[in-house]
Specification:
The protein has 14 helices and 15 strands. It is an alpha+beta fold. The strands form five sheets. The chain has a four-stranded antiparallel β-sheet. The chain has a three-stranded mixed β-sheet with strand order 1-10-11. Strands 2-4-3 form a three-stranded antiparallel β-sheet, with helices on both faces.
């Protein structure tokens, strides 16, 4: 008979979440770098998510915008780049080489070959791989001279970036593609360029580009071990399915990495098997008091696991997710999602409870306090999530009462 696995139940998983994800009040961070280090990656598809996710975890939320700007654009201790699943994240800059080698290389090769095929076919052979290499070198040189630039600025330096080709000729989805938009995306996945300052405020989705800071080239297998070790430290226990989903790797790569880093198997309440980092299988006590949080759409905690029943009831998902599986703004109480929130056009932050089991006046008061805390540092800024969800739409329109 095999050795019995240590059991980590829902209560302990929520305790780990509160502390490792810096959501309990006592676990809040002083700097954005500490938040990113603890979470490994901040979703960057919606620019506002980065700031809102950090603000929810800072001891002094009023410093959120200037501190995140400092880290991203002045000290460059954080970097916005493509990572797992071809998705844009914000990482600690020191992790850029690990992310690129562990998740980006295979995606980058596929993206480049796809661009060359589409471009050559869609131009009738006029735009070739050799032509692209020449344009690419010229564009990167121009970007290095400028420091940061928009695509429009780069096209003034290298007009050939404006060349177009037909994507999907003869198909229902036929459309014109511009070399510049496809090429910059490929260079981003390859880790050769990164997103710089936005054109507008911190909520803007239009960014300048910059040449990526240099980083060592790591062996992919070695980089996978480091990324998985960090992930388990932040989110363990996690199942093979959780890790495969988050990394975008093959399950064989996940299993190989788990074995190589000495991950410890534990049993979970649903009867499944999870894994924690080596040496992290001891009991973890929760925070000294319950906690509340208002987390943004695509928050790394809400999106941290594929198997979410231990913190998010299935009955809540239709209201809190869009049709593509993107989570909207969520309200948390002591380790579980209990509702959602939104901002109305006049700036008022409103929230609604969907799961009131065990919630008393203390919970409601704590949630209201967090809403006031968020509203105070947002000030006049208006937030509209990039991926709208049913509850967020209803709340922001004013058709549901606040605090219900």
């Amino acid at each position: 008979m095999g050795e019995r696995l240590r059991h980590i139940g829902v209560a302990e998983r929520r305790a780990r979440l509160a502390l490792r994800q810096r959501l309990a009040v006592a676990a809040r961070a002083a700097r954005p770098e500490e938040v990113a280090e603890s979470l490994v990656a901040l979703h960057g598809t919606d620019p506002a998510t980065v700031y809102l996710a950090v603000g929810a975890r800072l001891a002094d939320a009023g410093k959120t915008v200037p501190e995140v700007d400092r880290a991203l654009y002045e000290d460059r201790t954080l970097v916005r780049m493509h990572g797992m699943r071809h998705t844009v994240f914000v990482f600690p800059t020191e992790l850029a080489a690990v992310v690129h080698a562990s998740t980006g290389l295979a995606i980058a090769a596929k993206a480049r070959s796809g661009l060359i095929k589409d471009m050559t076919t869609g131009s009738g052979g006029r735009l070739t791989e050799e032509w692209l290499a020449e344009v690419e070198a010229s564009a990167l040189a121009a970007l290095a001279r400028r420091g940061q630039a928009t695509v429009n600025e780069l096209t003034r330096d290298e007009p050939r970036l404006k060349e177009q080709f037909t994507y999907g000729a003869g198909k229902s989805y036929e459309s014109p593609h511009t070399v510049s938009s496809r090429l910059m995306r490929v260079l981003g996945v390859e880790g050769r360029v990164v997103r710089g300052r936005p054109l507008g405020s911190w909520t803007s989705s239009q960014f300048r580009w910059a040449v990526a800071p240099p980083h060592p080239e790591l062996p992919p297998a070695e980089a996978q071990l480091e990324l998985l070790r960090r992930r388990l430290t932040a989110c363990g226990p996690a199942t093979e399915g959780d890790l495969k989903w988050w990394t975008g790797w093959k399950v064989t790569d996940v299993r190989r990495a788990l074995g190589a880093i000495g991950a410890v198997a534990v049993s979970l309440d649903d009867g499944g098997t999870g894994y924690v980092a080596a040496g992290d299988d001891g009991p973890v006590a929760g925070p000294s008091s319950p906690w509340a949080a208002l987390l943004p759409g695509l928050d790394p905690t809400a999106m941290g696991w594929q198997e979410r029943d231990w913190y998010l009831a299935a009955s809540l998902r239709p209201a809190l997710f869009d049709g593509s599986g993107n989570v909207g703004p969520t309200v948390w109480w002591d380790g579980r999602v209990v509702g959602g929130w939104a901002q109305r056009p006049d700036g008022e932050l409103v929230w609604r409870l969907l799961d009131e089991e065990g919630l008393g006046r203390d919970a409601r008061d704590a949630i209201a306090t967090e809403a006031a805390r968020l509203g105070a540092w947002l000030g006049p800024t208006r937030i509209t999530p990039r991926f709208r969800t049913p509850l967020e739409r209803e709340l922001s329109s004013g058709s549901l009462p606040a605090g219900a």
